[in-house]
Each structure stands twice: as C-alpha cells, then as structure tokens.
Amino acid sequence: MTEFWLISAPGEKTCQQTWDKLMLATTRTNNLSTNNKFNIPDLKVGTLDVLVGLSDELAKLDTFVESVVKKVAQYMADVLEDSRDKVQENLLANGVDLVTYITRFGWDMAKYPIKQSLKNISEIISKQASQIDNDLKARASAYNNLKGNLQNLERKNAGSLLTRSLAEIVRKEDFVLDSEYLITMLVVVPKTSYADWQKTYETLAEMVVPRSTKLLFEDNDSGLFSVTLFRKAIDDFKHKARENKFTVRDFQYNEEEMKADKEEMTRLSTDKKKQFGPLVRWLKVNFSEAFIAWIHIKALRVFVESVLRYGLPVNFQAMLLQPNKKNMKKLREVLDELYKHLDSSAAIIDASMDIPGLNLSQQEYYPYVYYKIDCNLLDFKV
C-alpha cells in the first residue's frame, strides 16, 4: 500500500502528547496504520492575508507538480520499454525508495532556505517544476521522433512480403540490369499457388523469358519469385498476374538507394543507443528533484493550513500515516473521533455536498488538516 495520509493536529501541552495520543488510538491496540512524525521546520509565518492567498496557490502548485512527477515516471516506463520491471528501482528520491524518503522526510535547507518567505519558497518550487516540465517535453519530443523514424524503418523491413521492404532480401545477381529490352520483375505468390505459378507465368504475357523464374525468399504465407520479361510486356504481365492473384511488387534494384536506407537505419539505431543512457540519467535525476519538490509542497500546505486553522503561536504536530488497506474506513472513524472537538462543523460536511463558497471537490474536509500522498505513480498515462 503506497498511500499516505499527511495530517496535523494542534499540540496539547506538548506536541509529543499529540503524537502519543495518535499512536495510542491507531497503532498500539488495533494496527490501523503505521505512523511517523513528519518534521516541518520553523518557517516564516508572514501575515494572515498572505497565508490565505498562499493556501489557494499551493493547492494549484501541488496538482501541477504531482502531474510533472507522474509524467517523468511514466516517460521513464516508456523509455525503458523492454525492462519495465526496472522502472521502480529507477524511481528514487535522494537515492532512496519513495516510501523511505517520505517516512524519513527532512526539509532540504540548501534548496529551500527557511529564512525566505513561504511565498518565495513556493516560487522556487514552481520555477523548478516548470523547468523540468519544459525540459521533459523537449527531450521526449526529440527521442520520440528518433524512435518513431527507426520503428518506421524497422516496420518496412518486417511483415508480409506484400508490403515489406525487399532491399534486405534480394541480391544483385537476381536481376537483369542495364538492359535496354529486358527487365526482372518480383512477384509475390501465395504458397498454395506455387504450382499454378510455375505452370502459367510464361503465358501471362508475350515475351516472358522461359524458365526465368526463381524463388528468392519465403515467409509463412507467400514466396517471392523473380521473372524476366521484355520491357514492352510489363503492363500486360501486371494485369494478367493480378487476375491470377499474383502480386507484382514495384521494385527497382538501386544499390545507392538501398545503401542509403541501410546507413539511415544504422545511424538512427546508433543515435537511439547514444541518447538512451543520458536520457535515463536525466529522468532519474529529475524524477528525484520533482518528487522532493512535491513532498516539500505537501509540507508547506500542512504548515499554512495548520496556522490558519489552529492559530498562532505555531503549535501543531504533523504526522504521516500509512493506512492498513483493510482498515481505512475504521482509521478515518478513529481520527474523526479523536479530533472532532477541533471543528464541530466538520462533522456535518460531506465532500459530496455542494456548499457555496466551500471548495470541497478537490479535497475532502476533516476536523484535522489532511492531505493524501499517493505513490502509485504509474497508473498515469501522459
């Protein structure tokens, strides 16, 4: 279960008492959740007006940064194509798995100096997330173009004889080249019609060179035959071949073109391999950056909301709960019972009710400060 509930409640006589009460209610007797203290440093409070405005801005920023985190994670899965099972081990925050990072969260003073105002810290995070988002778009676009071009070429060299490129199959000696009068045609014949082909190909048009057919290649359904005829009989031959369900492929042997195609495929394949390593490294680094930023936003939101709800001086305990999946409903009931005295109106508010002026659609409302952190990041399609 990788869902966490980040909550806060006001300090009793001490914050430790608030913590002990929660532990007693949720873990010591009934194993409803695994809990950790969530340490938020002494941030600059600022004025009430700023906090109210910031509360809304942080809600939007939370949604945006979460989307960036998920996009990077999803693109990592796309890039790792054949080794998707390795995705999880590349999705780390500060070099540790996500659960470890969240449960041992410590504020990054170097990235987000607490001497700065809350608004400044949120702007640092916003700029950082926007940069990652823009870089991801550019890198993904370049890599996807390369991958798409390579796949198109690979598709041309695979599949049915009716559609695939024949350059890899035929050889120079299979053709009459540089003749003013003669030309070699390539014909796809269903396996069930080989006998018919051998019987009829010389009579499909006048001027077909007798005994000139050769089987060059087979796939599961068909064979590719060569046949030599006079140029003036081409249209006649194509028409009669079609009537007999033989498919003439439009193909001219051109060594220069075939060589260019081969070189293009080698170049694209080499470029893709060259870009793969640096791209995965970039995704790892920036996933970590985005995820860390996201959890710092959660910390900022808990701080701002706790001050707005519980007042000054700052005195609250932030706590991280990892609910036991089977007991989530029971855990919610225990928390409501434990904290209902904090806000009597909360008991009658249901998130499904539409109350003017209360924006509950995005966030359920409880008597305690509550934010969900969901680490199931790969259910998301970009």
Describe the structure.
The chain is elongated, with a radius of gyration of 34 Å. It has helices at residues 15-28, 48-79, 87-90, 98-103, 118-156, 194-200, 234-243, 255-310, 328-339; strands at residues 3-10, 33-37, 182-190, 214-218, 222-230, 247-249, 316-323, 369-374. Mean pLDDT is 90; it is low at 351-362. Helix 5 runs antiparallel to helix 8. By secondary structure, the chain is α+β, with helices and mostly antiparallel strands. The relative contact order is 0.22. It has two domains: 3-150 and 272-351 and 360-374, subunit c (vma5p) of the yeast v-atpase, domain 2 (Up-down Bundle); 172-252, Alpha-Beta Plaits, CATH 3.30.70.100. It has nine helices and eight strands.
Quick summary of this structure?
The chain contains 9 helices and 8 strands. With 382 residues, it is of the alpha+beta class. Strand 4 (214-218) and strand 5 (222-230) form a beta hairpin.
Give me the count of strands.
Answer: 8
CATH superfamily of the largest domain, by name, is: subunit c (vma5p) of the yeast v-atpase, domain 2
Measured on Cα atoms, how large is the radius of gyration?
Answer: 34 Å
The biggest beta sheet reads: 4 strands, antiparallel
- Percentage of residues assigned to helices: 40-55%
Strand content: 5-15%
Instruction: List the total number of helices.
Output: 9
Question: Mean of the pLDDT scores?
Answer: 90
Q: What general outline do the C-alpha atoms trace?
A: elongated
Name given to the CATH architecture of the largest domain: Up-down Bundle
Structural class: alpha+beta
CATH class of the largest domain: Mainly Alpha
Q: In order across it, which strands form the biggest sheet? A: 2-7-1-8
Distance between the termini: 23 Å
